[in-house]
From TrEMBL:
Its main location: membrane. It comes from the Archaea. This is Ammonium transporter. The keyword Disulfide bond does not apply. It comes from Metallosphaera prunae. Belongs to the ammonia transporter channel (TC 1.A.11.2) family. The lineage of its organism: Archaea, Thermoproteota, Thermoprotei, Sulfolobales, Sulfolobaceae.
Amino acid sequence: MALGNLATYPPAAVPQWLSLGSNSWILTATTLVMIQSVPALALFYAGMTRRRFSMNTVMMVLYSFASTFLVWTILGYSLSFYSSSIHVGGLNFLGLPLPIWNLPMFGETVYGPAGTQLNIPFLTFVMFQFAFAAITPGLMVGAIVERTNFKAWMLFSPIWIILVYAPVAYWLFAGGWLNQLGAVDYSGGYVIHMTAGYSALALAMAIGQRLPHERKIEAHNLLLTALGFGLDWMGWNGFNGGDAGGATIDAAIAVFNTNLAAAAAAITWMAIDMKVFGKSSFTGLANGAFAGLVAITPMAGMVNPSEALVTGVVTAPVVWLGLYKLLPRLRVDDALGVFPVHGIGGTVGGLLTGLMIDPAVSQYFLPGYRGALFGDWHQFLVQALAVVVVGIYSFMVSFGLAKLVGRITQLRLSRDEILQGDYAVHGETAYPELVKEKVQMRKVEKTNQKITEEK
């Protein structure tokens, strides 16, 4: 068969409704978002931890990725995007729980209570949305590294997808009740970043702090972190550009705005660091860029570039204050600042969305939508309502789930396991010399103890 000639394919393989360009772009965007989890997020977090916990950090991200795929296939997708199973006063709250193989797998994408259609294959859409779901619990890992019982994480992560992610995705992605009230989330500022940020705060509170002398970040390899950061930033082109649902004008707008907001936030954060600390750092630049990426996400394809620039400049100092001023006062050991960057960053972005949706841009995605700055204060109010609902719901359900898991297995590693790290948890380590050093130290300690006793 000549693969370059579509006429040689069976007609069923190239139906009339299929847009080859849109399908190609969304499959590409899916791959970019998957790369954001593994390897990008895994490397970013692993480099920021102590050497003895680097593999455990990678394992937690990788486990979330794999377990989410199973949950997504069995019932996660249908809960998030299929016909409504719970209606209250004409509002739709949750999808119907069915496995993928009980849905029209090989047809055109049709999702949500309104039966929204996209001219791409159904499984393309399922995979793209899976990539979003998979990265969300992975983001939470950064808040709870270096003390979390892996068995507890094995329970928490997949259940969280069902209890937190799926409902919020239905409310703001599929046409659920917040969408019905007028709230929009272009690409996951609420569904991914706010749920991850507020859930991370709850989980860190439930698990408790690291050992007292290890509260400060001790990044063992910033080059790994830089590699992960670069892949994550690049992957955001698919993250925000793919949510257009096809190869459309608003996809190009979203990609441009995404990078502009990130660059503006990164430079703003560096300027603040230099003013306050007298020097700039890579971690500061990365946090700034991530803050801009998070904040632009809920509006990426619905604002003009000048508003994207403002979003980056405004968000960076707010998240900076959250990291260096608010988080210490909360006395929560959010190890890598997940709540400030994703929770607060998502909140700022969500509120700015209500202000800045530009009708000249939204015409390419949701014609008629406009923010408060363009005369529609109702839009700001519904976006603010979505912020409150998603933040409180994510925090409360996640805290309750953590406590429930804690009744089944310990949430924390023991002190000895924490001191050993990867080898105690997984029986392997990225740095075998650490184990040899500790064995040698124990031998020396035992020898010294014997000498003391003999004296």
